[in-house]
Structure formats: structure tokens, C-alpha cells
Specification:
heterodimer, A: alpha+beta, Beta-lactamase, 2 domains, seven-stranded mixed beta sheet, five-stranded antiparallel beta sheet, 23 helices, 23 strands, elongated, B: mainly alpha, three-stranded antiparallel beta sheet, globular
């Protein structure tokens, strides 16, 4: 039996011949390379070899909607050292000429020992005087040279720090994650659209091959440059931002902490995106020292932090529309259903207060007066599961998908969230605060703006976006970014009811009267985010014109206290400015702008005790 | 009538000595390629790996008779499990997520699973009554290799994945499977690559291969099945490709078109050819090769290790190394031909052909006649998991040699 498997002997002979043949081919190939082509390769190796030089492409520009350049490039000179040619003895001269710590030079050389023939970037932004000094001392400094790099230049009147984001030398961690395209010393987008559109903006590096001798001197282009790959310039971005409105929003936030996001309700275009305090991109594009970074990072106002899309706050009463919309759509209530508000609500011995006793109140009035008891009771009628379902439908607890890096999805708690967090020990009491947008729910100003836009346009959720089109001059030309939209399955009647309530908030006897402007009807809602660490944060979300909405806005002022006082006037001013521009109609004396520039001191009607 | 038959000597000395000699060449080459650089620790690490490899070889060689026959499937299961675990908990090195970190060492289960897959496939094709002539039997063998391959593809590690299909091809060739059926079965592997390159190329290939199969074999059922297999493989890869992160896409693109990344592939081959050619007949002398010493060839301690002896010892050194591999491969073939059991024969051939495939592809790659797919050179390239795996394959050959010697 042992021989049974030896049946197919022809096959085995074939395998043996194949194996032998393969070795024979390899042997012949070696003979070919090492005997016939020996002279050619020896010359190659002696002269000495082929070197690949990287050519950095021009990074794409960023333009406003009218084609004005906001972010440009400027050539700068960068000192380089090629380790293979460089002599240790030159270090003292290099450090004295360029006022460099010799430790920096040694460290850079040590970290790049593997690539002895590639220039290592040592110092950016050399002046012409330094370049002249370098040229004078060339013969004493073998291996020291300079290359031309590009630096970002910011030409806009506004800062737009968080929106644009900065580019910075790639960190080792990012280098490991982003794969082989980058190498140490390369610049990469870190935040904002510079990061989100990194692959679009950066273009593609070019490679040029040179034959070099054993001392690294270039002898000629390898194969007359046939193997070269030219660099491909990065594509330009055209923004959706309304530059005047952006500038105005930044002005309104001066000396405050907070954020303003304004959207076009009919396509999701971001019109203004301001977060304060901010920082100057110009300083970051200079060579910043570690110390400067530390100061910026540790500033107690957290200027690097993008409050528009990275900071999540409890939405407070601005979230009442979400609950109302869900309850109306699920037929838990209709526009005429009333719920009694005796001024407080008691659950398991704990009393939750309202701003007043509103009596039997319907949903429109409940929004107008921001009645808490109405919504405490409503969330129990609706149920937690449906509340979470509708919340998620409006993109709460998940990213809006905006094209700005590092978006915070916020938190939309549901049953599994509480189970994870508290085990089985949580009870209905936890839901009470959710009914009025407090507790463990948190949303970003961006999410609130997108939600408000959805209410305003009657139920279409547009993905907010700041880039309208990409101009790829090296390739496909100008391409518009498709507008992503979702039609939400809610009846038009639901939106009409909610919008009526929001109109009355501003123009009825509601909490948002301070958002009124004399020239256009505003609808909106105030909110106050409870803050355990200090004064509450003030919210206002709104849109205008109320009759035919065009712009939606969300404003948060950190530690601003009551939303109707701190946030509403700013939102009103933004909406008016966004629609009518800076020109004040002759017949009207509008003082909103002036008032909004300092904390508003609106008088509070007697019937409003809180927001 | 010669007296004691040579086959009764329990140790295959040529096999073992060639293996150890190649390990020595490997250490010398790594030393030459890394001394004076930050990578020099690789030399010290490789000494440790070679010792671990020899230990593995010895353990596999002295395993109880028929041990691998009985434990083929459990070993295979363990291999699959390790591939799943590495996807869930592994870390990423150079864009490849197939590593476990153990202290200062990285371990790649995809290497070890090569051995367990070969053992399982050998067992499967040697079950009594298996003729490998029916569709179902070939499909079974296909599944045994396809499962680990799919898991490795996710990492993604294409080079290692290709080795699995090479082993599949050689083993089925050895047991006498119809070559047309075999090639058709391997066609989805090509489809997968084509589908990433171009939709029409892939569709044309998928339909074409089925038509050819039908014309040759006149079996409409098989032809349709292959069509479905090819189309589903191609489309599912296209779907996956659209849903994977950018850096993995970049890896695939470079694999398919090395000129896209001249820093890592095209450039390497250029430099590697210069290194080999400049070696001439007798070489430039140990530690005196300029291509090696000036670090012109990247990856020189791993995938392009062959350039080091080629430049420093020339054609003479190259012939010595190829002869040593020749000794291993032809001793392996001899062991496979003389084995007393079908399983042992298939397994011995599987181990031999896997080593053979690595050598041919790696050397062919360095010499610029095969595409750069990142397959290391057995016994010489730096790398722990791969060294241990290669030694385990030699251990299997010695194991089978010993049991054959016992039964004669």
C-alpha cells in the first residue's frame, strides 16, 4: 500500500524539471547581471548610484465664494544638511552662523541616520542675509544647503482660525498612521479644513532621479529624466462662507467665550463659523517653538479648541422643539392638546419647578413660554425610546458629517447608554431633565444650527458643509461638492406648529424678545445649559425671515447666563446682518449691533423667571 | 547488492547542514547591511531568532510518528484562531495590521499559519478515497486555503497571501489534480486583482475563463460555477475596496503598480540590480560593497538581503547560495518521493515547494525579473516569525525523513 500514491510519475518528473528549470533561470539571470552587464552596473555603482530627489508640490489655495484668496503660499528658505556629505567638524560653524543650538543639529542628524543621502530639514524661514552667509561659507560647509518650501499666508480680513485650521510638521505618531507618502519634516493639515481636505490640498510629490557620485554630487539626470514623475499641484477649495457675516460674527464674539454657526437653510452651506477665543493662524505658520505651543495649549480660554463643532453642551430648552416634534408626529399630542402646569412637577418626592404656573397650556404656548412642566410630562408620554429615536434622526449623538476635522458627535443617551453607565440602577427620574434638554445630553452648536435649519425648511436635513467646490487645475477642473440631504419622515403640519411656537418666542410674549430686529421677523428659542462649574451657558437658536426662512443660526455664550439675555441679541443681529448686510435701512435706527458688542442689558419681563 | 541502505540514516545531513549554512550566510549579510546604523540590533535579534528556529526544527523533527497526521485539523484551527485574534487585537506595523507585540518582539501569525495550512491541506488531500478529481473535493481544498488567505487579505498582506495559493497549487499538482481545473480554481485570485485595476478587464477575464473552461472540458455546470465564483470574488473585493481606509488603498495601489511609489518599490529594484550586477564574478569583498555599505538598497536586511552577498561575494557567492537552496529543495523532493505514506509525501512536497516558491520569488524580485511583492528569503532575511516558520518546514522534512527511515 505504501507505494499507492506514487501513481502519477509523469507529474512528478514534470515538477522536478520545473524546479530545476527555475533554479537554472535564476542562475542564468545572475550570470547575465554579474557577467554580461557587469561593466555597466560597476560604473553605476562607482559613480555611484541613482538618487531620488523629492519635489514638493504647491499646496492648494483656499478661496472665498467670490474667488478671493484667503489662504495662499509663500516661498521660504529652509536650511538642510545631507548627513552623508556633512562633516561633524562643521557643527560649531553651522550653529554660530545660523544661531542654532548644536544639540538640535546633532539630534536631527541622529534621527535621520537611515537616509544618509537625503537632505534633512534643520531650520525653516532663513532670511536672505543667512542665505548669503551660507553661500559665502559654502566651501567650509560640505553637505549644508537650503531648499525652497512653501509657507501658508493668510490674506483674509477675518481670522477663521478653527474653520481653516493649521498645518504643521508631521508628528511621529501621525507619520506612523498616515503611511509611506509622508516623511519626517513634511507639513500636514492638523485641524479644520486643512486636515479634512489634506489629501485634496496637498497634491502629489514629484520624484526626480539623478546619477550621483560616491560623494553624492549630481552627475546627470538618470535616463535623461524619463523615469521622473512630476509633482502634481494640490487642488484649490472654494468656501461657502459669507465673508462679511463671518467677520461680523467674529466681531460679536470678541471678549467672549462661545460660538456662532450660521447655515443656509436651503442647502446646508455654512455662512459663518466662529469660535472664541481664537488664535492667529499667522503665528502658527511661522516656526513656532515648543514653548509657544505650550503657552497656546495651556491658555485657560482654550483658544485652540473649536467650540462650533468640537464642544458639546447640554442644549437646554432649545431641545424642547425636538421633543415636541417627536410627540406631534407620534400623535401623542396634537396642536390643541393641553397639559396642566401648576407651576411645579413632583416625581417620587422630588419637586421640579417651572418658571410660573402656566395653567392648561398647549404645545405652541409651551414653546413660547418655555414651560418646563409641559415637557417633563411630555417625555413620559412619549417614552424614552421614541425620544432617542427622533433625536438620532436629527443627527444628535452622531456627527453631522461637516467637512471640518475632529467633529464631536455629542451625547444622545438611550437605554443602553444608561445601562452601561449606571447598571440597572437608573430610574425614570433621570428622564425628567432630558425633557428640558438638561442632564446627560450634549450637542454641539453646529448640530443645533443644522437642527434649526431643518425646522426652518420644513423637514429636510442638509449635511452642513463649508467647501462648495474643488478646483483641481492639474486634473478634473472645477467640481462642485454634491449637497447631501435627507428628507425626514415628519408631516409638514408638525413643522408649522413648531415654527409658530418659535415665532411667538421672539414676537409674542416669549423669552426671546431680545432677538427681535426692526427690519425682519425672527423666530427662535432660548436655552440655558446648566453648568456645574460656574455660570450657566446661554443658548439661542433661530432663523429668519420667519415667513420664508433663509438663514438659521445657533449661538452659545459660555457663562453668559440666561439665553434670552446673552445669546438672543447676538443671534438676532447675525440673522439681520446675514439677510440685509451692513447697510442700515434709512427709516430704521437699529442699535442691535452696538448693543450686541457688549453684554446686553435687556429688561426682563416680569412673567419670565428663567429661560 | 549494496549493504546498509542510505535511507536508513535517521538524519538528512545535507538538508540540515545546508539550512545551517544559509542561516550563517544570513547573519553575515545582516551584519554587513546594518553595522554602524540604528538597525544593528537586528543582527543580535536574528541570532536569537536563528537559535529559536533551530530549537523549533528539532522539536518538530522529533515529534511522535504520525503526530502531524492526527493533529492536522486542530493545528489548522489554532492557526485560523490566531489570524482572527490578530485582526481584533493586533497592532499595525508599516500599514499591515498582522502583528502581535510581545515585549520587544513582533509576531506575525500569518507566517505560522502557512505551516498549519499546509499540514491541513496535506491531510485533506490524502484522506483515503480522495482522488481530487471531483469538484467537491477540490472545492474543499480550496476552502482550506481560502479561509486563512481571506483573513490575511484583510490585514492587508498580499505577498504572504500569494504564498498560500502557491502552496495550494503545488500540493494539488503533486497529487495529480487536473491542471485545467486547478488553474480555473485559482482564477478568482487573479480576478480579485483585476477587479481593482479595471472593471472591464475583470469582467472580460471572468467570462473568458469560463468560456475557455467550457470549450476545453465541455461541462456547463462547472463553467457556470466558476463564472459565479469569479464574479462574486471580483465584486465583493470592489465593494471592500470602496470601504477601506485610504492608507490601505495606497498599499494596494502600490502593489498593483510599483511605479506609483518609486521610493519603496521601483527604486529598490533599480538599486538592487545595480548591487547584484556590480558584484561581478568574485564580488567586492565582505563589508566592501559600496551599494550595501552606502545603504543604497532599502529593506536590505529583510526583502532585499540577497543583494548583500551578491555584491560582496559576486557570482561565486550567488552560486553557492543558490546551490545550498538547491540542496534543500532537492533533498525535500527526495524525501517526498520516498515517503511511506501519502500524507507524508504530500506534506514533504508542500514544505519543499513553499521554500522553493519563497526563494524563486525573492531572488527573482531582487534580480528584477519578478514583481516586488515583499516575500522574504528563507533562512537569510531578518524576521522572527518567518525564520521560525522556515525552520519548522525543514523540521517537517526531517520528521518525515526519520519516519521513512524507520519503516524501511
Amino acid at each position: 500500500m505504501s507505494m499507492a500514491f506514487r501513481g502519477n510519475s509523469r507529474r512528478k518528473t514534470f515538477v522536478g524539471v520545473m524546479f530545476f528549470g527555475a533554479f537554472a533561470i535564476l542562475g542564468y539571470r545572475m550570470f547575465q547581471l554579474q557577467f554580461f552587464e557587469y561593466d555597466e552596473f560597476r560604473t553605476h555603482a562607482e559613480r555611484n548610484s541613482i538618487r531620488c530627489i523629492e519635489r514638493e508640490p504647491m499646496r492648494g489655495l483656499i478661496l472665498d465664494a467670490n474667488g478671493n484668496i484667503l489662504v495662499n503660499n509663500q516661498p521660504i528658505y529652509t536650511l538642510t544638511i545631507t548627513p552623508f556629505e556633512f562633516r561633524e567638524e562643521s557643527i560649531p560653524l553651522v550653529s554660530s552662523l545660523f544661531e542654532l543650538d548644536s544639540g538640535i543639529v546633532r539630534k536631527a542628524l541622529r534621527e535621520n541616520r537611515g537616509t544618509a543621502f537625503e537632505p534633512v530639514k534643520i531650520l525653516r524661514d532663513l532670511t536672505f542675509e543667512k542665505i548669503a552667509l551660507l553661500e559665502e561659507n559654502r566651501s567650509l560647509l560640505p553637505g549644508v544647503g537650503y531648499i525652497v518650501e512653501n509657507r501658508r499666508v493668510y490674506t483674509a480680513q477675518t481670522r477663521m482660525s478653527h474653520l481653516l485650521g493649521y498645518i504643521k510638521e508631521i508628528s511621529p505618531a501621525l507619520l506612523a498612521r498616515r503611511g509611506p507618502y509622508y516623511k519626517p519634516g513634511d507639513m500636514i493639515g492638523y485641524t479644520g479644513i486643512e486636515s479634512y481636505y489634506e489629501d485634496v490640498l496637498r497634491g502629489r510629490k514629484g520624484y526626480e532621479y539623478f546619477t550621483v557620485d560616491a560623494r553624492g554630487k549630481v552627475i546627470e539626470r538618470f535616463e535623461q529624466g524619463k523615469a521622473d514623475q512630476p509633482a502634481v499641484e494640490g487642488a484649490d477649495l472654494v468656501l461657502t462662507i459669507d465673508m462679511k457675516l463671518q467677520e461680523y460674527a467674529e466681531r460679536l464674539l470678541r471678549n467672549r467665550r462661545g460660538a456662532i454657526v450660521a447655515l443656509d437653510v436651503n442647502n446646508g452651506e455654512v455662512k459663518a463659523f466662529a469660535s472664541a477665543p481664537d488664535y492667529d493662524l499667522r503665528t502658527i505658520s511661522q516656526a513656532m517653538t515648543a514653548e509657544q505651543w505650550r503657552i497656546l495649549n495651556e491658555n485657560e480660554g482654550h483658544p485652540l479648541y473649536n467650540r462650533c463643532s468640537m464642544a458639546a453642551y447640554p442644549p437646554g430648552s432649545t431641545f424642547k422643539m425636538m421633543l415636541a416634534a417627536a410627540a406631534l408626529q407620534e400623535r401623542i399630542i396634537d396642536a390643541s392638546t393641553t397639559i396642566p402646569c401648576p407651576g411645579s412637577y413632583t416625581l417620587a418626592g422630588v419637586t421640579f419647578k417651572c418658571h410660573g404656573a402656566h395653567g392648561n397650556i398647549d404645545v405652541v404656548r409651551a414653546i413660547e413660554y418655555s414651560c418646563n412642566v409641559f415637557f417633563y410630562k411630555l417625555i413620559f408620554k412619549l417614552g424614552f425610546a421614541l425620544w432617542a429615536k427622533y433625536g438620532s434622526m436629527f443627527h444628535f449623538g452622531r456627527p453631522t458629517g461637516i467637512d471640518i476635522a475632529h467633529e464631536n458627535p455629542g451625547v444622545l443617551p438611550d437605554e443602553s447608554y444608561y445601562n452601561r453607565r449606571y447598571g440597572r440602577r437608573w430610574n425614570k427620574g433621570y428622564l425628567v431633565s432630558l425633557g428640558i434638554g438638561q442632564g446627560e445630553i450634549s450637542t454641539t452648536p453646529l448640530q443645533m444650527a443644522a437642527f434649526t435649519a431643518t425646522i426652518a425648511n420644513g423637514g429636510t436635513y442638509y449635511r452642513p458643509h463649508v467647501v462648495r467646490s474643488i478646483i483641481d487645475r492639474a486634473g478634473k477642473g472645477k467640481q462642485d461638492i454634491p449637497i447631501l440631504q435627507e428628507r425626514l419622515p415628519l408631516d409638514p403640519e408638525v413643522w408649522r406648529v413648531i415654527r409658530k411656537g418659535m415665532f411667538l418666542v421672539v414676537h409674542g410674549s416669549g423669552t426671546g424678545y431680545a432677538a427681535r430686529t426692526s427690519s425682519v421677523h425672527v423666530a427662535g428659542k432660548t436655552g440655558t445649559a446648566q453648568n456645574p462649574h460656574g455660570r450657566d451657558h446661554a443658548w439661542f437658536v433661530g432663523y429668519a425671515p420667519a415667513e420664508n426662512p433663509k438663514i438659521a443660526v445657533a449661538v452659545i455664550i459660555e457663562n453668559g447666563g440666561w439665553g434670552g439675555e446673552a445669546a438672543a441679541p447676538i443671534a438676532g443681529a447675525i440673522l439681520r446682518y446675514g439677510l440685509l448686510g451692513p447697510v442700515v435701512p434709512a427709516s430704521v435706527t437699529d442699535t442691535t449691533e452696538v448693543e450686541a458688542a457688549k453684554p446686553a442689558k435687556a429688561e426682563r419681563p416680569a412673567h419670565i423667571l428663567a429661560d | 547488492m549494496e549493504t546498509p541502505r542510505r535511507s536508513t540514516i535517521p538524519v538528512d545531513f545535507p538538508l540540515i547542514l545546508a539550512t545551517i549554512a544559509l542561516c550563517g550566510m544570513g547573519l553575515a549579510s545582516i551584519y554587513s547591511a546594518t553595522h554602524g546604523t540604528a538597525l544593528f540590533q537586528r543582527f543580535e535579534k536574528q541570532i536569537f531568532w536563528d537559535l529559536m528556529g533551530i530549537l523549533t526544527l528539532a522539536i518538530v523533527a522529533v515529534a511522535p510518528p504520525r503526530f502531524f497526521h492526527y493533529s492536522a485539523y486542530p493545528l489548522y484551527g489554532a492557526g485560523i484562531l490566531s489570524l482572527v485574534l490578530v485582526l481584533l487585537f493586533g497592532k499595525t506595523v508599516a500599514g499591515n495590521a498582522g502583528w502581535f507585540g510581545i515585549g520587544p518582539f513582533g509576531v506575525q501569525p500569518s507566517e505560522f499559519a502557512k505551516v498549519t495550512t499546509i499540514i491541513a491541506l496535506s491531510r485533506y488531500v490524502s484522506e483515503s478515497g480522495t482522488t481530487l478529481r471531483t469538484f467537491r473535493e477540490i472545492a474543499g481544498a480550496f476552502a482550506i486555503v481560502g479561509l486563512p488567505w481571506g483573513l490575511i487579505l484583510i490585514q492587508p498582506d498580499f505577498g504572504t497571501g500569494i504564498v498560500y495559493w502557491a502552496s495550494f497549487f503545488f500540493i494539488l499538482l503533486w497529487v495529480g489534480t487536473d491542471v485545467v481545473i486547478l488553474l480555473t480554481f485559482l482564477s478568482p485570485v487573479l480576478t480579485v486583482l483585476l477587479s481593482i485595476v479595471n472593471l472591464w478587464l475583470f469582467l472580460g477575464f471572468a467570462f473568458g475563463i469560463s468560456v475557455i473552461f467550457y470549450l476545453v472540458k465541455k461541462h456547463i455546470g462547472f463553467a457556470l460555477l466558476f463564472l459565479v465564483l469569479n464574479l462574486s470574488a471580483g465584486f465583493s473585493i470592489q465593494y471592500l475596496y470602496d470601504h477601506i481606509p485610504e492608507h490601505q488603498k495606497a498599499r494596494i495601489a502600490v502593489f498593483l503598480d510599483p511605479s506609483r511609489s518609486p521610493r519603496t518599490s521601483g527604486y529598490n529594484v533599480l538599486q538592487s540590480k545595480v548591487a547584484i550586477g556590480a558584484g561581478g564574478l568574485t564580488g567586492k569583498g565582505y563589508m566592501r560593497g559600496t551599494q550595501t555599505q552606502l545603504r543604497f538598497v532599502p529593506e536590505q536586511s529583510t526583502d532585499f538581503i540577497f543583494c548583500v552577498p551578491a555584491e560582496e561575494f559576486g557570482f561565486v557567492g550567488v552560486m553557492l547560495i543558490l546551490s545550498l537552496y538547491g540542496v534543500i529543495v532537492f533533498r525535500g523532493l527526495r524525501i517526498a518521493l520516498r515517503a511511506s505514506f501519502r500524507f507524508s509525501s504530500v506534506l514533504a512536497f508542500g514544505a519543499t515547494s513553499t521554500i522553493f516558491f519563497h526563494v524563486v520569488v525573492n531572488v527573482g524580485m531582487a534580480a528584477g525579473i519578478l514583481p516586488v511583492i515583499g516575500i522574504p528569503l528563507p533562512f537569510m532575511s531578518y524576521g522572527g516569525s518567518f525564520t521560525i516558520t522556515s525552520m519548522a518546514l525543514v523540521g517537517l522534512l526531517q520528521h518525515i525523513h526519520y519516519s521513512t527511515a524507520q519503516t524501511k
